Prior knowledge:
With 503 residues, the chain is α+β, with helices and mostly antiparallel strands. The chain has helices spanning 38-53, 62-65, 67-132, 138-141, 143-154, 196-205, 257-263, 289-293, 380-433, 447-453, 459-464, 474-483, and strands at 14-16, 23-25, 159-164, 170-172, 209-215, 221-231, 242-245, 248-251, 278-288, 314-320, 333-336, 350-356, 361-369, 437-444, 469-473. A five-stranded antiparallel beta sheet has the order 4-3-9-6-5. Helix 1 runs antiparallel to helix 9 (380-433), helix 3 (67-132) runs antiparallel to helix 5 and helix 3 runs antiparallel to helix 9 (380-433). It is rod-shaped and about 185 Å long.
Amino acid sequence: MPSFPAGDDPNTDIFDLSMGGIESFDNSGSFQRDCSSSDATQFRANRSLKLAKGTTQHRIPAWLRYSRTWAVVATVLTIVIASVWRFVLDDEEERQFFRDSVQEIADRYAQDIKRQGVTSLSSLQALAAMIKFDDSNFTVHNFDGIAGSLIKAYKGISNLQLAPFGTVRYIHPLVDAKMDNRGALGHALLLDPDRRQGALDTIHSRSIQVVGPLTLLQGGIAVIGRTSIFTRFAPKFLPTESFTKAGVTYHSNCSTPETQLLNCYFPGPLASDGVPTHFWGFATVLTLASDLVAPVELHRLEKGAHRIGGLSEFNYQLSAEIPHASLAGVDGVFAQSSVAGPGWIPEDPVMAYVDLPDFGIKWVLKVKPVDGWPKMSEGFWFHLCVFLPLTGLLGVGLGVCIISDIRRKALQVEKLEEYKKDVISSNIITSVSNIDLLQFPMCLMSVDHFMNLRRLISHETARDLNKLCFVDDSKRLAHLRDEEGILFFSHQWAGFFHPDEEN
Length: 503
């Protein structure tokens, strides 16, 4: 198609300002946007695609970057750690409960020993009460029968003794399978230098005095309780007596009024009717350690009578907190398990106290399992092999489910992001591929049509008369420029209704 001449110089650059910008063409065919080259177009497309997609290699998965994921991991770990800690704590509590249970048993036995001790010593009060109101010596004459009844009723008693004027005259039983007490008959407690002070203390205290546990001369370990008896039927002064010990004879001089008041006069409290009373003598209870604890049945501890946490056999040891001199070598121990040998010391036992301050008694009962305290609770292995792994699996399974849900949602987000990137890349590729197409086509008119007009007309009129040629391809436009030439000129309208009223 012929074009409007480009001027005298065919190489003169022609500029088209019709597209809202400046585009330059020259006769060499070079389009200054460099968009006519397919290689450049492909390069830009590839580059834009690369910039849009970026690289996803060696990236941490998005779901691992979520704080919720690590919060779930931390929660699962906390659950597992808390389960382990609770398991260890429960095991410790169960072992402590086991020890507390043994302590309760020991306390119960200590209370039984305390009760039995009070009961056994109370036999002295019963015996003293009978003598206090006996004006015919019926109690003395029937002592064996009365003592036998008291021993049977009160229990925990090896023998009962009466010592009128302080000298032992009556003992029941005098001889039995455990003891032979005949050597104690005629023992003057107020004349024996080893017993006199204790006897005087008993008279002055007017209460039950307890000695022991101690080792007896005739063998065995015993507790001795003694009380003084005051009655209106007793003489005012003690009779003169003598006592021989280790070849030495001791005398009481009660023959003159002066010596009677000094050595033989022990007045008692007034009777309820105001009648004075005087010292009659002593009532004594002697109980071997084995007889004292027999009613309590301490042997049940080692015979499996109590079952706690899978254990049923326990060793025990009963000792005086402040031992008598005769038991100092064995730390005051006077009763213990049959399987325990001399010098046996229980390791880490529970301790219960037998405390009778009115009688000066403070004993300690120690109890421990025969095989020692368990290192773990009875259900330790069950919890370790079943409960704890099950808790861990449940915790991990819960965590996996939650993390899987988070991962699924994260992958959905990633796919959405990839889709957005693909859309952007597609748009870029489409834009690059259409870069040779002009967004606004160039409108041209051939020289022949222009010259035949004879006057200027409007664009719309030229369009309606099919006088215009529209070019929207840059390559074609460049070809047209090179082959025929394109002339561009600008004309300002001279009127409102016609480009140039005069032409």
